[in-house]
Amino acid sequence: MAEFKEISPNASAGAKLTNWFENRFPTMFDAYRVHMSEYYAPKNFNFWYIFGSLALLVLVIQIVTGIFLVMHYKPDAALAFGSVEYIMRDVPWGWLIRYMHSTGASAFFIVVYLHMFRGLLYGSYRKPRELVWIFGCAIFLALMAEAFMGYLLPWGQMSYWGAQVIVNLFSAIPFVGPDLALLIRGDYVVGDATLNRFFSFHVIAVPLVLLGLVVAHLLALHDVGSNNPDGIEIKGPKAPKDAKGHPLDGIPFHPYYTVHDILGVCLFLMAFTAVIFFAPEAGGYFLEYNNFIPADPLVTPAHIAPVWYFTPFYSMLRAITTEMVYALIACVVLGALVGVVKGRMPAIFKGAIMAAAAVVVALMLSIDAKFWGVVVMGGAVIILFFLPWLDCSPVKSIRYRPSWHKYVYAVFVVNFIILAYLGVQAPSPIGERVSQVGTLLYFGFFLLMPWWSSLGEPKPVPDRVTFAAH
């Protein structure tokens, strides 16, 4: 048992209360010191570093509003749509809670996409933060599952038919696909059993996984320390430190960055509340107009599309046609030939590469294009996990990479936005061609990264972080 810390009898009532708690719950105060007041973060953080705390804020908003929605929601196919209408019309402030939750879903993905892009810009996935990045990608994957399952719950037309389309994709998996789709639905069509399954996962299972991953993400980050716009380690063995061992290029997270984050939170909440009060549907992007119509299994909407944050991956799914499979086969063969000709490896490995390419080509020719569309859609997310090992640049931050690297990142962002836009639109021949090119550019960015990231002469990296007081 730890010894009690004594305090002066003349101390203030607040100090005495704090001392009372600290003597009885020292673990909490140790955690506060490790992760807040004595956690030294680089002193050159910029505005890109507010999105992590904003993601945590939106997570809290979603959990709190979700708790209140569950109090009135009925997970029954015959009652679900009516219960949502009841929340909107009859529950005091129910419309506000519902709009906060629906807007929060889109806000979550906006801040997470920006948070991930910042990591991409400054190389926050590089050594020693590979595990931080992997936990972050797992959070993104869990967030997608959470959003998809929650999307069915209003039981509107787009909810119903969107779930029908996505769940049916699993049936394209050879051998186990039909049984897997049946297991997910709990029935031969999306119905009451599906709604109950998705409700259970959305409210209990996935949030628990999500919270665990968020904790792991933060603990892993604080173990290795935060990255910064210069990509310089402030806590390494060669980093300058003061007499107490604190990094000279770091400042305590609290109070400096808590104030920094509070400013970001205020700006975010102004934009968030403006959307809630003036444009909660966001022109049909946050809440589709078809979802204000009760689900009808006998009436299919003219155009079925997921919510905007899934549309880049949905575009890639739709881009995989039979002729696109032939283009992918050409890419596999070309990649194998380049690996064999340019790679410095024993002959047995070159033979293994060619054999593997032959097997992949045979599978691509024998299995339906719909399955490969599912593989591409899933691969577009899974490939993010391998980013720490794909980037071969000698420097971390975009600041010190060759200038033309910025254009590569710009093309990637524009391409991602175009894919997102095309995913919302109805299928068309031109849109199909553009999405096919966009899919190749998306995967080319990552798969060719070991090559293009090592090209060019990097700029000199300073010994210490660049910082100007303001």
Written description of the protein model:
This protein has 470 residues and is mainly alpha-helical. The protein has 18 helices and two strands. It has helices at 13-24, 26-37, 51-70, 80-89, 94-122, 130-152, 157-169, 177-185, 192-224, 253-278, 311-319, 322-342, 347-366, 369-382, 387-390, 405-424, 429-447, 449-452, and strands at 40-42, 250-252. Strands 1-2 form a two-stranded antiparallel ribbon.
* Structural class computed from helices and strand pairing: mainly alpha
Ranges where pLDDT stays below 50 over 5 or more residues in a row are: none
The rough form would be described as globular
Mind describing the biggest β-sheet?
2 strands, antiparallel
Helices and strands, in order, run as HHEHHHHHHHEHHHHHHHHH
Spatial extent as radius of gyration: 25 Å
According to DSSP, the number of beta strands is: 2
The total of helices stands at: 18
Helix content: 55-70%
Strand content: under 5%
Q: How far apart lie the N and C ends? A: 46 Å
Give the strand line-up of the largest sheet. 1-2
Describe the secondary-structure layout:
Elements lengths: L12 H12 L1 H12 L2 E3 L8 H20 L9 H10 L4 H29 L7 H23 L4 H13 L7 H9 L6 H33 L25 E3 H26 L32 H9 L2 H21 L4 H20 L2 H14 L4 H4 L14 H20 L4 H19 L1 H4 L18
Antiparallel strand pairs: 1-2
Task: Name the features.
two-stranded antiparallel ribbon, 63% helix, mainly alpha, single chain, 470 residues, 18 helices
